[in-house]
Amino acid sequence: MTHITTEGEAMLAFLQALPTSQLERCKIDISYLENNRLRLLPLFSGDVRRLRSLYLSRVPFLPSNTFPGLTTFILDLNNNVYRNKDPHLELADLKNFLDGSPGLENLHLHWVWCHTGPHPPKASNATPRVVLPHLRNFTLKLDSPLISVAVPMILSVIELPHACQIQLAPVSLNELEAMSPSLLSLGRPLTRMRLMLAAKSFPDPAGSPSWEWSLVLASRQADCAAIRLALQPEPVDRTRRIPEGAFSKPPLFADVEELWCTSSLGRYEDDLLCSVLSLPPKVRSLALCIQFWELGYSHGYLARVARVCRQLDTLCICIPNADNLRDVREALTSAGPYGRPRCRAIRRVAVGFDQSSTWLSSGATSWRDCGAGTEVSWTGQIARPSDDEMNSTEIERLLSAAPQVVEEPASIRASWPTFPGFLHPY
Questions:
Q1: Residue 136 backbone dihedrals phi, psi, to 5 degrees
Q2: Positive or negative CA dihedral for 409, 414, 417, 421?
Q3: pTM here?
Q4: Strands of 206-313, DSSP E
């Protein structure tokens, strides 16, 4: 790795004299921008056929591709450097570079446009898209709203295989609808969705509370990788202004059948999750994983869950402690305006907890009246999954592991689905 400064001319000469025939990994970070192209070009010459990983940080141009064996390429132009103008990166340059590395497996583009976004390719230069059959990970990080402009343009010059995992960040909520046609053009049946909500790791200097949320869209088909979206962090005071249909209108969610929501349950998250519960039209299975239980919000929140029950076939709820089971049962079974159970339409109801409780020794809470014609109703502790189970769990697996009749607390060998490595650092 080389950091080039105004005093780095001797270092450049030294690097250019090094043999490159055995080089496998290289990172170049430019610390100044003026008049550096001609000085840097010699760094990309020589025999680099063995190069596997190339990381260009703040290099404002793409060199000619002489890296046929490249498997990982990271281009990070660091938007703090280009405060007044965009780096001169054209889609045609990107396409030409990628054409030279057909074995690429990982492609990460960070802050490659900062102000105006990419220019559409000229019609006169229209050529077939770059085909990268071995690509497994594609990441694009751009400031909003540039990302919604860049995604369709990049997909117009690069063909992503079904097995390629896509990560986009950050995406604002109102950009989901604009990006839907481009992402749907990938031809992946997106039938599973998971929304994860957490308090922001580093609060704003002003102290205004906000949250970070991420969205994962996946298919049941083993050969189709997930699309992962890190949504734009939102201040808490904007919660009530989120449109109720924000998660039901985008065409990207039109075929979602299974929805997982993971969150704390408190006065901030409650409003947002209730907006989410205006479900996409085809959702039939809903799972709620509540990581922190704040008293006083459970009944109102779960009562709103019951509002969407008429379209659900399956409802799964995971709570942190068995002490909260009575609250859940009361919210789900209390009579509606016509004296009917709130969850009457649900065929299968399952409730699990992480930590047991002493009062359970006298008998488990009955869930048999949570739905009309319920096939499986149970209460049980959800066991910690092993590493090899973390990516394969489905709602069906959770339910099939449950006993038909619960007379005492059950130990259910099941887990809630997780997506490790979401937007991991490189």
A1: -115, -20
A2: positive
A3: 0.80
A4: 210-218, 227-235, 258-265, 285-293
Query: From CA 408, how far away is CA 303, in angstroms rounded?
Result: 27
Q: H-helix or E-strand containing 298?
A: helix 298-307
- pLDDT for res 98: 94
Residue 255 one-letter amino acid: D
Measured distance CA(382)–CA(213) in Å, rounded:
25
| Rounded Cα distance, 140 and 150, in Å | 9
The helix/strand/coil state of 278 is coil
- C-alpha 371: how far from chain center: 33
Taking the CB of residue 394, how many other CB atoms lie within 10 A of it?
Answer: 15
Cα–Cα distance list, 156 to 29, 128, 290 (Å) = 29, 9, 40
CA dihedral 287, 292, 296, 302 (to 10 degrees): 0
- Within 61-112, residue ranges assigned H as helices are 91-99
What pLDDT, on the 0 to 100 scale, is given for residue 53?
94
* φ and ψ at residue 284, rounded to 5 degrees: -120, -15
- The token pair at 364 is 């488990």
Q: How far apart are CA 104 and CA 310, in angstroms?
A: 47
Amino acid identity at 293:
W
Of 367, 370, 416, residue with least CA distance to 390? 416
User: pLDDT by residue (tens digit) across 227-262?
Assistant: 999 888 766 566 555 666 677 788 999 999 888 887
The total of other beta-carbon atoms located within 10 Å of residue 203's CB is: 11
Q: What are phi and psi of 384, to 5 degrees?
A: -65, 130
* Mean pLDDT calculated for residue range 292-312: 70
Distance between CA atoms of 252 and 119, rounded to whole angstroms?
25
Q: In this structure, what token pair is assigned to residue 388?
A: 């090899």
Nearest to 131 by CA among 97, 157, 153: 157
Site of tokens 């869209």: 217
- Is residue 104's pLDDT more than 90? yes
Where are the strands (E) in 155-256, listed by range? 158-159, 165-171, 192-199, 210-218, 227-235
Query: Could you give the CA distance from residue 210 to residue 235 in angstroms, rounded to a whole number?
Result: 4
Coil/strand/helix, residue 63: coil
Angstrom distance (rounded) from CA 296 to CA 381: 24
Q: How far apart are CA 357 and CA 349, in angstroms?
A: 21
* Beta carbons within 10 angstroms of residue 241's beta carbon: 9
Q: For residues 216 and 314, what is the distance between their CA atoms, to the nearest angstrom? A: 20
208-228 pLDDT tens trace: 556 677 888 988 887 888 899
Residue 57 scores a pLDDT above 80: yes
Collapsing DSSP states into helix, strand and coil, what is residue 354?
A: strand
How many CB atoms within 10 Å of residue 212? 17
